[in-house]
Amino acid sequence: MATTDSIEMAVLIFVLLAASSVAGGRRGWNEAFSQEEHMEMERRLNAINKTPVKSFKTEYGDVLDCIEIHKQPAFDHPLLKNHTIQMKPETNLKKMSNRISSESSSSPPLPRIVHCPRGTVPIKRIQKEDLIMEKLISSSFLSKFSSSRYSYSNPSNQDGHQLAGVSTTTKNYGVQGSVNLWSPEVAVDEFSLTYIFAATDPTSGVNAVQTGWAGDGGKTTGCFNVVCPGFVQVSTEMPVGLILRPVSSYDGAQYAVKLSLELDRSSRNWWLHCGAKHIGYWPGTLFGTLADGATRGGWGGEVYGPPTKPSPAMGSGHFPEEGFRKSCFISQMKLIDESYHFFDPDDRTIRVSTSKPKCYDVKYVSAGGEQWYHRIYFGGPPNCKLQ
C-alpha cells in the first residue's frame, strides 16, 4: 500500500498548447530515470532558474527568487524573445459584486506578502522533483487526455485519470469561479485537483488556459509554466504556486478563492486574476484561435492514480449529494461576453459529465441567489476500485 503525505494547497496554473507539460513533485521516483536523464534535468534546472536579485524561503520550505522582470523564465520561449511586457490588462471589465453572505464561504487570508525589489517579480525556484513529474505525467497524460478534458466527449477509460465537472459550448472571453479549498490525501503516485478553464474546440488540437488548486503526494506543487516557459508574472507580491491556508473542514468553516481567466482583446493576452489581483498572463502569440476568444468554458475536479490501485479522493472526499460544508464546490460560475460583462452559463449549453460515476460525481445547480449564482458540487471518496 502506498503511503500518503501531507499536502499543501496552491494556486496552480498551466497552459496547454500543441506541446504542453505538467509539473509537480513526487518523492521516491528518482530510480525511474537513468543517470543521463538526471544529468539532462540538471542542465534544465540551470537554464530555468535565473540568478536572483534576492531570495526568500517560505514557511513551507519553497524558495522564492526575485528575478528581474525581463529575465523571468517566460522569456525563454522562442516566441517571446521581443515581447513587450503588459503590466495590467487594458480591458475595463465590469466586475460583479463581491459581497459574501453569512451562508457563503470566506476567502482565506493571503500568506505573508513577498516584497521583491522594484523591477523584479517573485518566481518559485524549480527543483528536480518538478522536472521528474513533468516527464512522468506529460508522456502518459496530456497526449491522451487533454481533448477529453475540454470537450467531455468521452471522459471514460483514461488510464487512471478521472473527471467530474461541467462544460459549456458558449462563446466567451473569460471564465470565473469561486473555488472551495480542501486538502485531500493522496499517495506519492497520485494527484487531485480542482480547475476552471477556457478553451477552443479540441478537435483541431488543444488550445486552452486553466487555473485551480492541486494536491499531490510530494512536497512541491507549483506553476507548470515556470517549467514550460510562457506565463508572464507581473504581480510583485503574489507568485503562482502560492500556498493558501487555511483550507475547509468537513461540516466546519469553508474557504474559497475567486479565480478568473480573462482575455484582454486589445493585446490578445489571457490574464490570470486571483480576486482583484492581476497575477500575470499568457501572451496571445502562444495561441491559435484562443487569442480571439474561447468557445468552451468548464469547472470541475480531476484525479489521477495508477489504474491497478484504488483511487485517490477528489475535492473534499465526499459526494456532491452531501452539499455545502461537506462536498467541494465551485460557486459564482461566470463567463465574460464580448462587451466585457460577466454573464451566467446558459443551462441549455451545460454538459454534466463524470468518467466514473460510482467513484466521483458532480451536481450542477443554477439557483440560489446572487451570493452563489450558478455552482457545482463534486467529488468522491478515496479507495474506489477503478477496474
From TrEMBL:
Keyword Transmembrane: no
Pfam families in alphabetical order: Neprosin, Neprosin_AP
InterPro entries hit by this protein: Glutamic_endopeptidase, Neprosin, Neprosin_propep
Domain of life from the UniProt record: Eukaryota
Lineage: Eukaryota, Viridiplantae, Streptophyta, Embryophyta, Tracheophyta
Name of the protein in its database record: Neprosin PEP catalytic domain-containing protein
Record-annotated Neprosin PEP catalytic domain positions: 153-385
Keywords noted in UniProt: Signal
Signal sequence bounds: 1-23
